Amino acid sequence: MAVVHASSSICSPFRSAPTVSRDLRTFSSPCIAAATLLRRGLRCSSVCRPGKCFASSDRIHPRIAASSAPVMEPFRPEVASRVFTSVEVDLGNRSYPIYIGSGLLDEPDLLQRHVAGKRVLVVTNSTIAPLYLDRVVEALRHGNPEIYVEKVILPDGEKYKNMETLMKVFDKAIESRMDRRCTFVALGGGVIGDMCGFAAAAYVRGVNFIQIPTTLMAQVDSSVGGKTGINHPLAKNMIGAFYQPQCVLVDTDTLKTLPDRELASGIAEVIKYGLIRDAKFFEWQEKNMQAMLARDPNALAYAIKRSCENKAEVVSLDEKESGLRATLNLGHTFGHAIEASFGYGKWLHGEAIAAGMVMVADMSYRLGWVDSSIVERVLNIIQKANLPTAPPQMMTVELFKSTMAVDKKVADGLLRLILLKGPLGSCVFTGEYDRKVLDDTLHSFCKS
Ligand SMILES: NC(=O)c1ccc[n+]([C@@H]2O[C@H](COP(=O)([O-])OP(=O)(O)OC[C@H]3O[C@@H](n4cnc5c(N)ncnc54)[C@H](O)[C@@H]3O)[C@@H](O)[C@H]2O)c1
Ligand SMILES: [Zn+2]
Hints:
Elements (H helix, E strand, L loop, with lengths): L3 E4 H4 L1 H4 L4 E3 L2 E2 L2 H10 L7 E3 L2 E3 L9 E4 L9 H4 L3 E6 L6 E6 L6 H5 L6 E7 L3 H13 L6 E7 L8 H13 L7 E6 L1 H13 L5 E6 L2 H7 L4 E6 L2 E8 L4 E5 L8 H18 L1 H15 L3 H21 L14 H11 L6 H18 L5 H13 L12 H8 L5 E2 L2 E2 L1 E4 L5 E5 L4 H11 L3
Parallel strand pairs: 2-6, 8-15, 9-10, 9-11, 11-12, 12-15
Antiparallel strand pairs: 1-19, 3-7, 4-5, 7-8, 13-14, 16-17, 18-19
Helix pairs in contact: 9-10, 9-12, 10-11, 10-12, 10-14, 11-12, 13-14, 13-16, 14-15, 14-17
The chain binds nicotinamide-adenine-dinucleotide (NAD) and zinc ion.
Enzyme class: lyase
Function: Catalyzes the second step in the shikimate pathway.
Subcellular location: Plastid, Chloroplast
């Protein structure tokens, strides 16, 4: 049985891979952006308008996989709309940028450069539409009179992440004559992103799509990496496709309207990156949790950037999840069991995986793979983030076992898990663990 080890310190192939380099890619003005490229002898492939310049070396230096921006830039609202960071997901000729910054919804050039064809279908939901749909449509149309933009507004909620709702996207696409060269734009959280991406993968066997994630969960995780899909009543995310977007546009200002509970849910995925491969990031989170919860723009921007860098590195090394990518599912086997058994949407995804990560830490400790200080730190940071540290009371050992039996990580009847092993920031993906220890953990978290 193969065991995949992962940790940024022990075996982060990113740090040693000769083909992957780092580059300063936080541009704060046209001059800085262009000058940075020129100094490096690079051609500026930016889309420039008076006062605006989105320089990018994408086409010049396609193997850049991550940026190293200053950690905490002073927040200057007057220039905020011109400051952004770009992290590249390196997948050869399917590489794409993740733009991260404040005010990016009002930057038409950035969006338009990734639109293929002249027909666009924006997929969103009834909560996000009144907040951001007009701005996105305006950004698509601005100075671009030939473009035809259609919208489909889906009902809001995880319980609608299903085949019936997906059909509404296809209905609108066919009614509005979306052709092979059209672009689907996902405007929303992970539910919209996953569904729109799957629709784009399947519609006429594949059209372009763009992710505009508006929740922290989507900005740090679901919009990046090309996993798309819907739920089956018996198992979460069971039907889907790997399908990469043309770009991901993260306007950090959208987090201002996000409810607190949703913000905390996204923080669960941020914590996950620290635990599986980035001990320094975990330490940063321990010190900056309050700032993130208080929506300090710099703290959130850094958390998003570092999370995207971690995800981009993992995805570029293992796009189709043959091993390493599975580590991004830390806590998800327990978490998905909670979501499916409790009823989709009752607990948010991040809440379920937060409890799942505590269970993983417990099991890893029982196996003797981590020391008690790691269990304590996991518990503390999850408590600090106002996330649950145990499954809901209705969860029984039997419920866990029956839902975990249909987990996507079951291979030949054997449930493989992501477990912590070694120092902080290290984990393994393995089916080689004592089954009794899994039972012990389940019994210690469930009444029956
Ligand atoms: N594809 C992947 O790799 C991946 C990774 C992680 C999670 N996911 C999936 O993502 C989903 C969870 O995503 P989520 O947490 O974003 O949930 P979500 O999409 O349901 O959004 C959460 C809620 O916030 C609302 N909302 C979104 N943006 C808002 C904003 N800016 N202001 C106010 N309200 C806003 C939404 O309408 C919704 O009510 C799950 O289905 C999960 O399986 C996928
Ligand atoms: Zn997740």
